[in-house]
Amino acid sequence: MTTKTALVTGANKGIGLEIARGLRALGMDVLIGARDPIRGKEAAAAIGATAVELDVTDEDSIARAASRIEVLDVLVNNAGILLERGAPPSATPVSMLRDTYAVNVFGVVAVTTALLPALRRAPAARIVNLGSGLGSLAYASTPDHVYARNTLLAYNSSKSALSAVTLSFANELRDTAIKVNVADPGYCATDLNGHAGPRTAAQGAVAAIRLATLPDDGPTGRFFDDEGEVPW
Description:
The protein is of the alpha/beta class. It has helices at residues 14-25, 37-47, 59-67, 94-121, 137-140, 153-172, 201-212, and strands spanning 5-8, 29-34, 50-53, 74-77, 126-130, 179-183, 223-225, 228-229.
């Protein structure tokens, strides 16, 4: 059998690295996408993967990375940022939304579009976008839900937008063998949140790894954590 190839963006640390580690353990050739080439090479060496310099906000960087990949079986759009530190929506500058969306939304679209030709060359590719329960409109619109009390305008809305992006790609590709889904890692202790989460990065990688290895009859255009389906 031909070895599958997977690319994980933002994978030099945290959940991204654990996703890469998990896919490598399953026998895939894993590409560690990282803005910093030195950190990317260090992370890749630690798990037996290959580093690819990739800044998801830079079109030239994306194009260079895509030019290296002929066939891609798995794309995990993990790169993401959280810039807010507790400010209410009314105190959130628009510039912060622009910077957040540049990575969490526009970066996902740019990378996915650039790599779609390579994904189409694979027999049955999988695209996994790292979302968050904080982006669930169902949770946010339920007053007594814990996530309804989290008012991070830029981050939360970017993850809601990511869900819409995921559905758009899933619908475009529904007649192909490519499956596109959202994985919610849960509240994990990572650099993103100052290591405040109660879950480990390895626990946060579980849902993404599962969606990256879905069988042919698996779902597409859905939202999952490691316990099951999450409402949009």
